[in-house]
Amino acid sequence: MRYLYWWRILHKKISCKQRLNQLIPRIFTLLNCVFSNELDMIEHFFWECPY
User: Fold this and answer.
1) Can you give the residue ranges of every domain in the chain?
2) 34 or 5: whose pLDDT is higher?
3) Which residues on neighbouring strands pair with residue 39, listed in sequence order?
4) Please, which residues have CB within 8 angstroms of residue 9's CB and are 6 or more apart in sequence?
5) Which end of the chain is more exposed for a tag (fewer CB within 10 A), N or C?
6) Is 39 helix (H, G, I), strand (E, B) or coil?
Protein backbone atom coordinates (compact mmCIF):
# COMPACT_ATOMS: atom_id res chain seq x y z
CA MET A 1 0.00 0.00 0.00
CA ARG A 2 2.77 2.47 0.81
CA TYR A 3 4.31 1.83 -2.61
CA LEU A 4 1.16 3.15 -4.18
CA TYR A 5 1.63 6.50 -2.43
CA TRP A 6 5.23 6.81 -3.56
CA TRP A 7 4.28 5.90 -7.10
CA ARG A 8 1.57 8.57 -7.06
CA ILE A 9 3.98 11.17 -5.68
CA LEU A 10 6.68 10.40 -8.22
CA HIS A 11 4.26 10.46 -11.12
CA LYS A 12 2.41 13.55 -9.86
CA LYS A 13 -0.93 11.81 -9.48
CA ILE A 14 -1.85 13.21 -6.06
CA SER A 15 -5.05 15.24 -6.05
CA CYS A 16 -3.78 18.56 -4.82
CA LYS A 17 -5.44 21.72 -6.13
CA GLN A 18 -2.87 22.27 -8.84
CA ARG A 19 -3.58 18.83 -10.30
CA LEU A 20 -7.35 19.23 -9.90
CA ASN A 21 -7.18 22.54 -11.72
CA GLN A 22 -5.50 20.81 -14.66
CA LEU A 23 -8.23 18.18 -14.74
CA ILE A 24 -11.32 20.31 -14.00
CA PRO A 25 -10.46 24.01 -14.40
CA ARG A 26 -14.07 25.21 -14.24
CA ILE A 27 -14.55 23.92 -10.70
CA PHE A 28 -11.07 24.37 -9.19
CA THR A 29 -10.21 27.95 -10.03
CA LEU A 30 -8.40 28.91 -6.81
CA LEU A 31 -5.09 27.16 -6.34
CA ASN A 32 -4.35 28.30 -2.80
CA CYS A 33 -4.10 26.00 0.17
CA VAL A 34 -7.13 26.23 2.44
CA PHE A 35 -4.99 26.35 5.59
CA SER A 36 -1.91 28.40 4.74
CA ASN A 37 -3.10 30.36 1.68
CA GLU A 38 -0.03 29.37 -0.35
CA LEU A 39 0.03 27.72 -3.75
CA ASP A 40 -1.17 24.15 -3.28
CA MET A 41 1.23 21.88 -5.14
CA ILE A 42 2.41 18.36 -4.38
CA GLU A 43 5.50 19.67 -2.58
CA HIS A 44 3.42 21.97 -0.46
CA PHE A 45 0.84 19.29 0.19
CA PHE A 46 3.37 16.86 1.69
CA TRP A 47 6.33 18.85 2.98
CA GLU A 48 5.85 22.60 3.12
CA CYS A 49 2.44 23.13 4.65
CA PRO A 50 2.67 23.68 8.41
CA TYR A 51 -0.82 22.27 8.98
Assistant:
1) 2-48
2) 34
3) 32
4) 42, 46
5) N
6) strand
